[in-house]
């Protein structure tokens, strides 16, 4: 004689989901669609607001280095974003090249070398750096850093001046693209460090123990197990940091001298970024000048979007490092 358990729960009919699952799925879907809608709204705004100035421009917007968007007697409207785009990318690349190796080293030290108390203190300090306003970094760079870098710049000119990047003469003010890149590197350092620290801490313990059991040193374990696992996260953090460097305004505007030139000389005054140019020109702009600045913002929007899409592509192409 068989007995049935009176406490047996009824099965959920196939094709039906619990109310909580439906609400959560729709909420997540709505959040994702909201992001796309905001992105599309920003793009449409930039395109519409910049159309009037672009249609009146008598020069090629993408290849011209002039900036005369205001209508003047006897002169047509001529402005382009080539020099600004060059300066924007150059400053961001310098910051990324300087900050990424240092950030990886700090993250590895915090996770695998530092004592627990010291690691917690260093993590707190790194997070605190991200909370400092950009104008404070700009003041620090303008008042203190540029003067302290002068001897280093003269050293680079003396011994590496044969490289075009370090060709002289050195700017007497120190307000160069390299100075701006160093300040931006300090600003994006906590972003890359935080991302790298989190991903390095998530390396499976079995991977690390297996490497050590095979006789690997701590550095060999990091090189063969930790870095391959954390590479996608490091790339993602680096691209997030580069995104901030591309859009940084006040710090760059306070350090660089306004100049619409294309020069690869890091020790000389010159170059300007899109964001800093918009911040400096907007108070005095009106009419077509405002529309031209919005057009420059559209180019910055496209550059940032392209960088983030490229980062997602690189990360997605990496094979997952699983057990």
UniProtKB/TrEMBL annotation:
Query: Which PROSITE patterns does its entry note?
Result: ABC_TM1
Location(s), subcellular: Cell membrane
Report membrane topology.
Multi-pass membrane protein
| Record field: transmembrane | 23-48, 81-114, 121-146, 177-196, 290-311
- Note the superkingdom of the native organism: Bacteria
The chain positions of domain ABC transmembrane type-1 read 85-311
Record-stated family? Belongs to the binding-protein-dependent transport system permease family. CysTW subfamily.
Task: Supply the name of the protein.
Answer: Phosphate transport system permease protein
Q: Which gene encodes it?
A: pstC
